[in-house]
Amino acid sequence: MQTKILQLAEGQTLEVLIHGAADKQAVIFHHGAMAASEIMAPLYRAAEKMNIFAIGITRPGYAQSSRREGRRAGNYYLETQAVADHFELAKFVSLGWSSGGPAAISDSQDYRCKGAVTIAGDAPRVGHDWLDYVEKYPPKNDALNPSESFDFSALKSITGDKLADVFGDLLSAADLEIGQGVHKDELAAGIRHGFSSGDFGVIDDSESDATDWEIDFSKIKVPVAVFQGDEDRMCTPAHGYYLADKIANAKLFIAEGEGHISLSYSQGDRIIAKALEYLNSKS
Hints:
Blueprint lengths: L1 E6 L5 E7 L5 E6 L10 H9 L4 E4 L19 H10 L4 E7 L3 H6 L6 E7 L10 H7 L26 H5 L5 H7 L4 H11 L5 H10 L14 E6 L7 H10 L3 E6 L6 H18 L4
Parallel strand pairs: 3-4, 3-5, 5-6, 6-7, 7-8
Antiparallel strand pairs: 1-2, 2-4
Helix pairs in contact: 1-10, 4-9
């Protein structure tokens, strides 16, 4: 993987992580909150196996991407638009994990976007029926109530050995296997890099994700795949069901026994295959 720093309008810098041979078509990755593009490592590996050009965008406020104060899901596509222009893409499919999900949906506004994929993605928590979804679709392993408080300061120097301690009961059993296994150090490195310039990224994500995205879900024309683990304690299953019900052309894929982190690791090949299906579609 290679890191590039793009210079955008009005002095804005944008960190992108590219992998694979440059092409006129690509998959574009949007990472979750509390990290940077490296956190999408299992999807980069899956894309490599399928010989797809992959571009990861580090959202404004994380790592070397300068802050764009006041950014909202409705205009997240602006960074993607600049990236697509820079790499002269003819078409792309956007994939977003967790807080990257809103960015993937936002990208559907670009004419080159042929589809969107959310992976344990956030939903806007402002619908009149949102609480009905929360009640109806809790995580299946919710033996504990995940803590509502979180020590973000601990993430700036987190190591793989500390992942389980820091995230605690936010992790499902499957998440713990990843967080304590061979991938723990790459996860921790992605988190540290995301916080290397401060915590503006996660602050802006928090303000944006739960508000009205200012995107008319009923007018989305491209296909949308919603991948959701049924044991996710961070973006609980309610998020996936809500997105699938509200977004036109959306299809829900429930992965039994998977949590927030494990989903990309266990389903990476399946997720990229779906993105490739959209990318190669003639419609």
